[in-house]
Design goal:
about 20% helix; five-stranded mixed sheet; single chain; alpha+beta; four-stranded antiparallel sheet; about 280 residues; DNA-binding
Length: about 280
Amino acid sequence: MPELPEVQTIVSDLQNITNDIFTGFWSDWEKVIRDENKKNITLKKFVKKLVGKKIVSVRRLGKNIALDLNNKTSLLIHLRMTGRLLVSDQSSITKNQKKYGKHVHHIFFLKKNHALVFHDVRKFATIDFIPTNNLLEKLQTGTDPFSKNFSLIEFKKIINSKQNKTIKEVLMDSGLILGIGNIYASEILFAARVLPERIIKSLTNLEQGLIFKSIKKILTKAIRLRGTSISDYRDSAGKKGSFQNELMVYKRNKQKCKKCDTIIQRSVIAQRSSFFCINCQK
DNA sequence: AGTTGTGTTGAAGA
DNA sequence: ATCTTCAACACAAC
């Protein structure tokens, strides 16, 4: 679930740990810890590089969380599907403890906040240790919807580079636009009154403008409501967001449309579930 | 009880 | 090169 609004919420929460210092690290799934060339780093090496370093800033880069350290390196964390980063003030979490919670796979120990606990059911999340200067070149090349560059003209240029793709695929292509996943793609297209299967070249100028506006509107609202907690997503205090209460179509197939009572349908586009109202969207 | 679907993304295969 | 498929893993729902 962590798409842009969820990652943004966590990054905002993690401003609390800026200026804190790493005192240790534990992991039982070290294969996801890598260097800038995506090569695995041994736990020993990683700990040695990390301990004593101060967190100088926490940033969102697409769906990634960057923790910048005071030695010109950064931890680039991607939560993938089920990752959670929990700031713990429990002194009960100690380095000597043998067993943590069932799905806790990494723990960063901190001087002031005790610990940053990394919970990940499916173990897909990644931790990359990268020189801060090389961070941007290691990332997806798409434009962030909240960057200054993301104008209507730029948006049109981006989507029209994929004339024969469906609008839903293009919205979710992180090489083009950053941060939109399966949930928000469906919600944005409902707000824009455009069906997800529509091919780019079939979209009118008006529809492209509506989709552009809906991207900002839906993502902004979702950030305000601290994200969508359907299954795994939690903020850094372990609390749920509340955008799941505002979903118009996502996972609402066979239910009535909140606007017109038509039954919401599900279809598969590029191997991903898509949800839409055949009456509200054209 | 076995099968299917799940938020992501990059690596492998065509 | 560029496109599609699949693997990484655990679990819930059917």
